[in-house]
Amino acid sequence: MKAILKFYFLLLPKISTALWRFLACGLVVLIFVSFFHIKDNTFSKVEPEREIQYLDWKINSAEYNNQTLVLPYSTKHSLSDFTIYTTLPDLNSTSTLFIRCRYKTITAKIEGNYIYASDISNIGWIKTNIGKNRCYIPLSKEYSNKPIEITIQLQNPMFSKSSLSEIILSSKNTYMVEYLRENLPLFFSAILLIVCSFGSFIFFLLSYFGNKKRITPLSKSLYHLAIISILTSTWALCDSHIISLFTDKILVDGILIYASLLFLAIEFAYYMNSLYGENIVIKFILLISKINIILQTLLFVFGVKDLPDLLIITHLIFVIEIIYVTIMSILNLSKYESSEKLLLNIGNLLFSILVLVVIIMYNYNRDGTYFKFSVISFITYCAMQIAVSVVRFIKTIKKQAALREAEKYAYTDQLTKMDNRRAYSVFKKHLGNTTLTDDFHVIYFDLNGLKTINDNQGHTIGDEYIIGVTEILKKVFYDAILRCRMGGDEFLVVLKSSKDILKKRLFYFDSLIENWHSDNIKNISVSYGYCSACDYDNPTFEGLISKADEFMYKMKNEYYEKSGLDRRRHS
């Protein structure tokens, strides 16, 4: 039993992940190959005609005999053909019959002679009914006012119903214009989804590079939301056949539809993982989503089952995901933590209901308008998710800014706004045992007479003294790699430059100190000592500081000897 559980939870997920990635790459290759090895119904471009005609058709089938055709029509007998017929009106050189249905075969006769027979679609060696959702039968003037008879065999998906939903007479250009006009909202909705995906991806990058952890639940959810938006827009454009109107690649449309749905199932599972965290349910959904890709790809490639017959499996995965999201949303609605989480859970709940309605609509009539409803659902959902993600992102940025500000204060001396001793410790730790180059210099400073000023004039004037020296240090050593206040009147500067530049900087420092004064302080004095790495063999940072401190104290002793002041009372 333990061995079975170990296989299920450890080995099977790894095997399925490797297989589905391999087969996903294979599916991408098939899509690419299908552009060059494809056989489906195509037709040449024609001059535009500004007229669409809906003819009166009669039908002969297992259910009806010589009755008026009422659309949409679906046969109740899965393998039975049906025939529709009418008399054609006056035609021109661009006239075409446009038939909308999911078919296996379509043939057309005029006066008993075949004028059209649908091809067998295939990708390489794989025969398929993918993309057989539209049929275009070109006509010519010689067929004017003659009877036409069209025999159709619809596809027979196991759990969903196909129907003959539209048949019109027009030219291709006119049909394209009218179809685009009718589906303009859908087209713009798909474009909006793509825009949403770019917006989501931009916020993902901002979240990724604006966070030390790089990968966070927020950045992962934004990334998967962007992928979901792209897949949804691809599916919508292909399922509505807007793309194939311009490319004539109906079979490619069909492949993209099923590939988008397969990857949507797994991307939505990853998105739920980023929202709710990994648990046994999420692991199970991810596992069956990967196995679904493996199973459908293998069955399709080896010709066992066509993808339209296998779509129900993907729908079942969507249903499982919807049930999980619904349960989690209801549970989380009772835990009011923040406004964005409340909005997120309401959006998840509404979206689950909408997707369930779409699945029901599809299985009731897969040639209906379910995709329009589904795109609206996805746009609403993605817009809500992006809005929530933006709010979260802004809050995260504010929180990180506050943390950076707090960190800045932790390593900054509040009086001088220079680095403090904690920053010095971090710098020393970061430097470690690094070999110091010859251009590495350490200068240690000590303010002379600060205690006297504090005792006689007060700490406010003493602070003015310290700030005056600090401003000079910042001005002279503007490019130092460390400027640090080590204690009350002690400062450390680490500079990388030539020794000549160091001496010029110190000369400049001396001149500024000598000429500095304020209303309360007539003059200031600073002792310092410096030490350069080039003067020693294998110097260490602490060794240089020790030597610089030693030289500083020599200069300080000279100052007090010359001034005649008691160092213990005035230091």
Helical coverage, percent range:
55-70%
For the sheet with most strands, the description reads:
6 strands, antiparallel
The average pLDDT value, as a whole number, equals 78
Number of strands: 16
Number of helices: 16
Estimated structural class: alpha+beta
Shape: rod-shaped
- Unreliable stretches (pLDDT < 50, length at least 5) are 5-9, 42-50
Structure overview:
- This protein has 571 residues and is of the alpha+beta class.
- It is 56% helix and 14% strand.
- The protein is built from 16 helices and 16 strands.
- It has helices at residues 2-34, 172-182, 184-209, 217-239, 244-247, 250-276, 280-301, 307-333, 339-364, 370-410, 421-431, 450-457, 459-476, 499-515, 541-563, 567-570; strands at residues 38-39, 58-60, 65-68, 82-87, 96-100, 103-110, 113-117, 122-123, 126-127, 134-138, 147-154, 166-170, 440-447, 482-485, 490-496, 526-532.
- The strands form four sheets. Strands 3-2-4-11-6-7 form a six-stranded antiparallel β-sheet, with no helix packed on it. A four-stranded antiparallel β-sheet has the order 14-15-13-16, with helices on both faces. Strands 1-8-9 form a three-stranded antiparallel β-sheet.
- Strand 2 and strand 3 form a beta hairpin.
- Helix 1 (2-34) crosses helix 7 and helix 9 runs antiparallel to helix 10 (370-410).
- It is rod-shaped and about 130 Å long.
- The protein starts with a helix and ends with a helix.
- The model is unreliable at 5-9 and 42-50 (pLDDT under 50).
